[in-house]
Amino acid sequence: MTEAETGPEAAPETVALSLPPLLLSLAADLVRAIDDGVRERGFDDVRPAHGFAFARLAPDGASVGELAEHLGVTKQAASQLVEELVRKGYVERRPHPGDARARLVVLTERGWACTRAADRAAAEAVRPWAAVLGEERLRGLRDDLARLAPSGRLRPIW
């Protein structure tokens, strides 16, 4: 797009049409940067889908059904993901405190270490944005995004 199509004089509908590809591209770049950073920190056996699961499991854990809903997958698919993460040592199953029939899936110390690595990678990925936008505009962007996405729900769209 040209400056006339995206600059301050752009028509509202042109601005609206330009936002989705820009946001999706930025989100893809961010996920890739976080994934790279997690791998560089020694967690090379996880993929971004695991990170979305970790976001739901922290801090209090979740049942397989809750995890399935969060990820937008079947309970069977969520159960398979949990089995994989158990084998890799990232999560464990415990008795569910509120449902004797269910099991609570929680992060292990390895899962928490991976989560902290992802947090550090995310901070590193976003740091250059401040150089481009400036600290004040970056805070404004954060505030605007918080208003537009009030749930703050981290969930992949498959």
From TrEMBL:
It comes from the Bacteria. The lineage of its organism: Bacteria, Bacillati, Actinomycetota, Actinomycetes, Kitasatosporales. Gene3D superfamilies: Winged helix-like DNA-binding domain superfamily/Winged helix DNA-binding domain (1.10.10.10). Coiled coil: none annotated. This is MarR family winged helix-turn-helix transcriptional regulator. It comes from Kitasatospora cystarginea. Residues 20-150 form the HTH marR-type domain.
